[in-house]
Amino acid sequence: MALIADDCRDRAEQLILLTERLTTLINAEAARIDARLPPLEGAEADEKNRLSNAYRLELARIKQEPSLIEAAPPELLSALRQRTVKLHESLAAHETALNAVKLISEGLVHAMAEEVVRQRGAGGGYGANGAIETPTGAIPTIIDRNA
Fold first, then answer.
1. Mind listing the pLDDT tens digit for each residue in 46-75?
2. Suppose 72 and one of 12, 79, 96, 137 were both cysteines; which one would form an S-S bond, judging by CB atoms 3.0 to 4.6 Å apart?
3. Helix, strand, coil percent content, the chain, rounded in steps of 5
4. What percent of the chain has pLDDT over 70?
């Protein structure tokens, strides 16, 4: 979804509003993660995704065609730069929070797998020739690293 702007001033004002709202949502999600709550859900999560895509698409358009924003008043461009810096700071904090969650989740999966191996003990399963084989100590596990 691209912004529909009348002129450079209007586009800059819309980008400032979009950037502020996106920053607010990202800060809220990072705060939820820090408070050990699930990330944003429902309408807020959908809004964050829509705004993220709109922001990305609009920046790509401006990169291809800088004249879309060049003639905006300097004070608006300065405000947009300031909001963009705040957004990038919020994104960095959000990334840190998500990486912590990922690290903890991976540690839990690893601990559970070790516990399964420990509880299964030395018992073996049937091999290809019908004889009981001794376990090798590892349990085949499928882990979705994208989760």
1. 999 999 999 999 999 999 999 999 899 999
2. 12
3. 70, 5, 30
4. 82
